[in-house]
Amino acid sequence: MRRIPDGWGRWVSHDAGWYPIVANLDERLAAIDPDYVVHQVKEKFGALRYYCAPRDDPSTALREAFRDIIDEAERMSAITCERCGEPGMLHRRSHWRKTLCASCAETLHYTPIPVRDDR
Questions:
Q1: Which of 67, 27, 35 lies closest to 51, judged by CA?
Q2: Which domain holds residue 38?
Q3: Burial environment of residue 33 by CB neighbours within 10 A (0 to 12, 13 to 18, 19 or more)
């Protein structure tokens, strides 16, 4: 939370199942820029969104490294239950989308969204 600048609020909007993904993401980003700042961390359309920036004027290589690390975490969230951290898939309830395992989906009354094969 110390990485979130004043005025941005002090909240993270996702469930506990993604905490290990976010903690690993923070650790990896801090290893290449210890002073980077976080603007927002949330779930959107069933996947993690992690908005942040390097502290100073970053090189192209640093920006690309940030993007690669963030992309990897966002991909992991799409196959990890947001609620419990077990393997999951995209589910829906009305217009809401969440990545959940079968057990959490049943508890929350979400139904699986079939995976499309566009081949």
A1: 67
A2: 16-84
A3: middle
Among 39, 46, 45, 47, CA closest to 12: 39
- 15-69 tens-digit pLDDT: 789 999 999 999 999 999 998 988 889 999 999 999 998 888 889 999 999 999 9
Average pLDDT across the chain, whole number: 88
Return the closest-CA partner of residue 39 out of 4, 63, 71: 4
Does 108 map to a domain? no
* Number of folded domains that form the chain: 1
Could you report the per-residue pLDDT of 12-21, keeping only the tens digit for each?
678 789 999 9
* Structural domain contains residue 40: yes
* Secondary structure class of 57 (helix, strand, coil): coil
User: Distance between CA atoms of 76 and 114, rounded to whole angstroms?
Assistant: 18
Tell me the C-alpha distance between 9 and 11, whole Å: 6
Residues 101 and 79: their CA atoms lie apart, in Å, by 9
